[in-house]
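Could someone model zinc ion with this protein?
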Amino acid sequence: MADNIRRRPREHQALILVDVQNDFCEGGSLAVAGGAEVARRISAHVLGHGDEYATIVATADWHDDPGGHFAEHPDFVDSWPPHCRIGSNGALFHPAAEPAFEHVEAIFRKGSHAAAYSGFEGFTTVGDKRIALADWLRDRAIEQVEIAGIATDHCVRATALDAADEGFETTVLLDMTAGVARQSTNAALAAMREAGILLVGELHDVTSPQGHPPG
Ligand SMILES: [Zn+2]
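Reply:
Sure, complex below.
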């Protein structure tokens, strides 16, 4: 896929893996159809192309008490079943993504006390310092980012829009994303295109039209 992208100079390019966590994959509390396949594809991509990136980072949904982000009767738009609680199995990265995560240099955790869809709301900890994703990337002279992960219509969308907003030349690798619902995924693709984000690959579309994630 995306051979034209692969041949570009990579020394200023980062790969951002968004929320490839158990709760967003089949069997998780907020399972997105195709999540485990996304984890497998990301591992294959990193094994084949990982050394072409200046750096690979990951984001993680990391909830303690995120208020109205969790609901007993979620609307699957603004409120969700509890997921990715700190310390839970659901918050761990999916086992199929393990080969990729051996190459991940930093993890940016987000959402401990409020909803946080974008990885750019997350922080990594270095010593006693918290560093935000945009600052971390700029410190490494990153100018372009490629984004993959879960879900296309929520955290991938928000991370990509923020990346573009922060001035990074942004590409989303669609065949390494999975969406919660078809309608919101289509809206996300339109919003990302509108923001000048390059969308490459075929969407791995196993979403339901209504927006009710399976599981
Ligand atoms: Zn969340």
